[in-house]
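Lecture 7 notes: from sequence to structure.
We start with the chain below.
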Amino acid sequence: MKIAGIIVAALMLTLSALVGILGASKSFDLGGSVEEITQGLSDQQIEAMGDAVPSSTRLKLGGAIGVVGALAAVGLLVIAFIKKPLVTKAALIAVGLCLLAIIIYPHVEAGPTDGMAPRTQSIVAMVMAIIGAGGALLAQRRSQA
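Predicted structure tokens for the same chain:
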């Protein structure tokens, strides 16, 4: 079980970090595009657009938290290999940061050629982080012989 836990943790946490970084990158790009679009517009004009234009602040903040969550997933992987008793706390932090990014990201409509929206990517990263955290917890368990 320990070897299976290491394999699952390595694969899922690495993929979680990769998806989290890709989502954050897309979020930063979208945030910059939104700022370009809304530059020079008054607050009333921006409010009149409604949900058609997401908040660039939320996009950039969600992206920053997504990067930190990706680093936490990599940190959890390192801690799992070191076999420290901090695995449980690190797992909660990694999954919690993914959840926080999901909450902060605004809803962004993605077209057929846009790929996944940042919130969707963050959901995928969180699922992988949960599976990877389970693998890390299995990897840190001591054998009962």
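Points to note: The chain has a mean pLDDT of 85. The longest helix spans residues 2-38.
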